[in-house]
Design a protein that fits this description.
- This protein is an alpha/beta fold.
- It is built from eleven helices and nine strands.
- It is globular, with a radius of gyration of 21 Å.
- About 45% of the residues are buried.
């Protein structure tokens, strides 16, 4: 049971931020899923990140709880951060414009926060076909379906699993979000991963092991995180590498038990090696041979995984034989579609 003497969380404390970019065909479904909550929040802030598909016309007249704002295109992180800066609630929840919430999502989170405490709460998520997609079972295999548990500054979550609960399920106190550094607007992808790492290193986290968010992965148009451009993908992999660097910096604490630290470092080194090896592929595909070689050597140095090491050594020594194949793989061959 929660021991805090602070006031109980209510729907009137919660602002919902929905970033959108060229999702005219589905953004209203996301908004309606919030309006249809059994506990309707204080407000819904739709942040249009420079859409060109007429999204603005959908909100010429809208529900009194819905606030539509537009801004120059800056990416999903800047859209979310801008929405939070406008939020009147002391708590904030996030939803992407092509996803939806189950009707009891907010109610369930409010009840769990009031029962167990905590200032950061994630729930489970599911894909269109019903498959779980949230990493909760990997973070705590002992947490039964349908139950919730509060974890006190669970730094171990950083290395517990390659997966983590998604931002579409996140409800947290606005002040905690700001103190954790918000979403890193320099990261085009993995901004949610970096934020998750900073949150678990800073405060208690409440996990609700119920699938209360529906993810749409059958997109008809490109959105804020979609990419099939090799040059942009190279920058994306730089973001993945940065997120793991954040993880590394957070676990390197003076009071960390040494044997435990070694195991944590090994797991993060493995992730870094994987992302660096993929970034090396992109460097070769972009004809940046020097960078490709340096990245391959770094991947070999870091990796304890035979597959990653073998792939990196192969490209390091025989990269001229694979350049065209890599160009096709990473959408850089203009003579035929990417494979």
């Amino acid at each position: 049971m929660a021991t805090s003497t602070s006031a109980l969380l209510t729907p009137g404390d919660i602002s919902v931020v929905i970033p959108t970019y060229n999702r005219r065909h589905c953004v209203l479904s996301a908004v309606e899923s919030v309006l249809n909550q059994t506990r309707v929040p204080l407000e819904i802030i739709v942040v249009d990140d420079g859409s060109t598909d007429g999204t603005d016309t959908l909100f010429a007249t809208s529900h009194p709880l819905v606030r539509y704002v537009s801004k120059a295109n800056g990416g999903v992180s800047s859209a979310r951060n801008y929405g939070v800066s406008l939020a009147r609630g002391s708590w904030v929840a996030f939803l992407d414009s092509d996803d939806t919430w189950s009707t009891e999502k907010i109610e369930r989170q409010i009840d769990c926060v009031n029962q167990y405490g905590g200032e950061v709460c994630f729930t489970g998520t599911r894909l269109d076909g019903g498959r779980r997609h949230d990493g909760i079972s990997e973070l705590d295999p002992s947490l039964p379906d349908g139950e919730a548990r509060l974890y006190h500054q669970p730094l171990a979550f950083i290395v517990q699993s390659d997966r983590h609960p998604l931002v579409q399920s996140l409800l947290l106190r606005k002040s905690i979000f700001q103190a954790a550094g918000q979403f890193d607007e320099h990261l085009q992808v993995a901004e949610d991963t970096a934020l998750f790492y900073r949150l678990v290193a800073r405060t208690s986290v409440l996990l609700v092991n119920e699938t209360l968010v529906n993810l749409n992965r059958q997109r008809s148009e490109a959105g804020l995180s979609d990419c099939r451009d090799g040059r942009k993908l190279a920058r994306h992999y730089d973001c993945y590498i940065h997120a793991q660097a954040v993880a590394l910096s957070l676990i390197l604490k003076p009071d960390t038990d040494y044997p435990q630290l070694i195991g944590q470092l090994k797991k993060i080194r493995h992730r870094l090696a994987y992302f660096i090896s993929r970034r090396a592929e992109l460097a070769f595909a972009l004809d940046d041979t020097a960078a490709g070689k340096a990245l391959c050597l770094e991947a070999v140095r870091l990796s304890s995984d035979l597959r990653t090491s073998a792939r990196s050594l192969l490209y390091l020594t025989l990269h001229p034989l694979f350049t065209q194949r890599l160009k096709r793989k990473w959408y850089l061959d203009t003579t035929e579609p990417g494979q």
